Amino acid sequence: EAQVTQNPRYLITVTGKKLTVTCSQNMNHEYMSWYRQDPGLGLRQIYYSMNVEVTDKGDVPEGYKVSRKEKRNFPLILESPSPNQTSLYFCASSFQGPYSYTQYFGPGTRLTVL
Amino acid sequence: GDSVTQMEGPVTLSEEAFLTINCTYTATGYPSLFWYVQYPGEGLQLLLKATKADDKGSNKGFEATYRKETTSFHLEKGSVQVSDSAVYFCALSEGETSGSRLTFGEGTQLTVNP
Asked: Quick one: which H or E segment has residue B90?
């Protein structure tokens, strides 16, 4: 089954404790992206990757890191989480960029930073 | 920069009512326009899209027409069902040469009562 998976689905952590949210797709997509969803703000793009070893900032990259060492994986790293990073996070992938290709979203990771 | 503005929600309708969710956009070029839907507890999925002016996207009884003159992409459905209850997001993506980014509106919560 074609899918985007994220782990964990739920996470409660404390300020400053490094964490990684994993994202994996099995569709051989070149493009992957991370979004955060906050009430009243919709989804905002954090980082995206056009291909292996190619990443770029989205609209809200501060406090986040990403890497793309393999085509299927695109982890999101929070080196020192803060309460304002409490949010619902979505990973997405597509064959190429979203202008021409449908984005497929993962089920989401709900993160709470205390 | 690019932006998308949706009508404020939440929207509550009775089954078989007519639905309109307004969406207007600001973009520098010729974007592709999308409607994504998020059912409770799930990730987003593409509902419909249009890639050039006057195109009409349609799916599952929903329609939206790309109106360049009014920079709008309003979502309509003639007769909603309880199963249409979800959050609807309007989004745009500029051309490939502008990088591959997806800009979302804030989302509109739709509840359909039997």
From this structure: strand B86-93
